[in-house]
Amino acid sequence: MVQIIPQPVIGVQQMSDYILEMKSIHKSFGSNEVLHGVDFRLKRSEIHALLGENGTGKSTLMNILGGVFPAGSGEILLDGVRTTIASPADAQQKGIAFIHQELTLINDLAVYENLFLGNELKKGGFLDVAQMCQRSRAVLERMRVDLDPRTLVSELDASYKQIVEIARALLRNARILIMDEPTTALTEVEIRHVFAIMASLKEQGVSIVFISHKLKEVVEICDSYTVMRDGHNVIAGPVDDRVDETLLAKHMVGKELSDDELYCPRQTGATVLEAVGLTREGEFRDISFRVGKGEIVGFTGLLGDGRSELFMTIFGCNKHYSGEIYLNGERRTMHTTTRACGCGIGYVPRNRKENGIIRDMSVLQNTSISIINSLKRLLFIDPQKEQELTAQFVNDLNIKVNCVDDSITSLSGGNQQKVVLSKWLAANPQLIVLDNPTQGVDVGAKLEIYHIIMKLAQQGMSVIVLSSEAQEVLKLCDRIYVMYHGEIRKEFQRAEADAEKIMVVATGGVVA
Fold first, then answer.
1. What b/e string do you get for 405-424 counting C-beta neighbours within 10 Å, with b at 16 or more?
2. Structural contact between residues 183 and 159, judged by C-beta atoms closer than 8 angstroms
3. Which SMART domains does this chain map to (predicted)?
4. β-bridge partners, 284
5. Mean pLDDT in residue range 458-479
């Protein structure tokens, strides 16, 4: 069994109640001061939520703790003793592990190979596979996980991959785990699995910093919380009966947030998109549905239900399918994305960092790229037209950016998502597909995106929302299709749908 590094014996009088204290941390990048004297304290054996909108300084604070870069000023205490953290390797030696939102596992390697990558055990000049497997089993057993260390990571679902990341940290004797948005890509069932692991580790003395925009999860799993806003501390305290999602959201954005008036009834028009018997082997089968003009239609279910594959096929990403696709009553064959765009379909993909933004381009270029040909004057792009187009969307979608020539990566996640949306809106589609449109964005930006979606529908655009969050489709949609194992199992009208019914159908059950 892998043991936690014993805490240094400092003496009863000196031993702090906190395993970690960060005091008056300042950090600037050039003239931009990101952290303004931030304090953060983490108790032993607790799960502590670190909250704030995107761009508020949470990641900077945790990167300082993880040794990615130094603080400008302030001090860090571990077990009550002042320390410096010079590098990620130094942080690791001090028992601090950072598990990032984008997992760093290698799919083509086995679990044990990922756990020992860079720290392989050898015997007589050869890799000691037996010993690495034995130690891997020990750390997985400590987490109460039944998993063969020789299993390829590519065969694991998302929750097990997250668990392997945690196991790698524990194998290196981590006492403090920083978990950045660990449940973003997980289904409800997988989230339960990860939460069980977190609770087990807390019992064993591990302290966890939990960074998440899902406030319901914070209230459920965390013992305490700290809220940051604009690089300052706002409030910190225990998660008790007085703390709920509304209170946390209010502290994060500095005002009351309400989506009570979000949904607006509308008169919808004729069918814009209709699918009849769509099938693609191994992904989805016999899919039939329709979407009217100005209608918001949701598709939900568990991860792997086939909804993304279905709409990637409709968008022309997959050539081989059977069934029929109709646009405005006319049958169309969607074999290329160019054809789908030409038919007036836009698609905002699930993972904006991999498929939505072009990281090496500016905000301006990311906004205009979908209609670059229409911005040309002779052989060159008309810079004035490009600037005017971008300025329009910055204003209309309330994109927070200092300069449109700044890199897209300089924006917060919510503002990046708005840029991706503006790229497709610039093409003036009649129908837009939004795949997990608020994944990884904070509560304020999420509500802004919801209002944008509702406004588009009011203007007559047809909107399809693909989401794993039942509450998201319940807030926005006129109708909801629930998928299970590649099939549509139930269509709900807005008035009859609720989260419990959706979950029953999404897990293979039946409701009246």
1. eeebeebbbbbbbbbbbbbb
2. no
3. AAA
4. 280
5. 92
Q: How far is CA 297 from CA 479, 484, 488, in A?
A: 5, 17, 13
Dihedral angle of Cα 483, 354, 319, 430, to the nearest 10 degrees: 70
Distance (Å, whole) CA 302 – CA 108? 25
Q: Tell me the pairing of strands 32-43 and 47-51.
A: unpaired
In what order do the strands lie in the sheet containing 47-51?
96-99, 176-180, 207-211, 47-51, 224-229, 232-238
The rounded distance, in Å, linking the Cα atoms of 464 and 454 is: 12
DSSP 145: -
Question: Rounded to a whole number, what is the distance in angstroms from the first to the last CA of the chain?
Answer: 50
Burial class from Cβ neighbours inside 10 Å (0-12, 13-18, 19+) for residue 373 reads exposed
Element (H, E) at 478: none
Q: How far is 286 from 360, CA to CA, in rounded Å?
A: 40
* Residue 153 DSSP SS3: helix
Helix (H) or strand (E) holding 20, with range, is strand 18-29
- Give the residue among 399, 37, 379 at the shortest CA–CA distance from 228: 37
pLDDT digits (tens, 9 = 90+) for 470-491: 888 999 999 999 999 999 999 9
Helices assigned H by DSSP within 406-498: 413-425, 443-458, 470-476
For 426-437, give one letter per residue: b (16+ CB within 10 A) or e. Answer: beebbbbbbbbb
Residue type for position 390:
T
Distance from C-alpha of 438 to C-alpha of 472, rounded to nearest angstrom:
9
The CA distances from residue 213 to 54, 110, 218, in Å, are 9, 31, 8
Domains in the chain, CATH or no CATH each? 18-253 (3.40.50.300), 268-344+430-512 (3.40.50.300), 356-428 (no CATH)
In whole angstroms, give the CA distance from residue 486 to residue 472. 21
> What is the token pair recorded at 122?
């050898």
Secondary structure of the chain: what % helix, strand, coil (to 5)?
35, 25, 40
The pLDDT of residue 422 is 82
The phi, psi pair for 326, rounded to 5°, reads: -120, 135
pLDDT exceeds cutoff 50 at 372: yes
> What are the residues whose beta carbons fall under 8 Å from the beta carbon of 360, sequence distance 6 or more?
407
* pLDDT at position 375 over 60: yes
| Residue 1 clears pLDDT 50, i.e. is over it | no
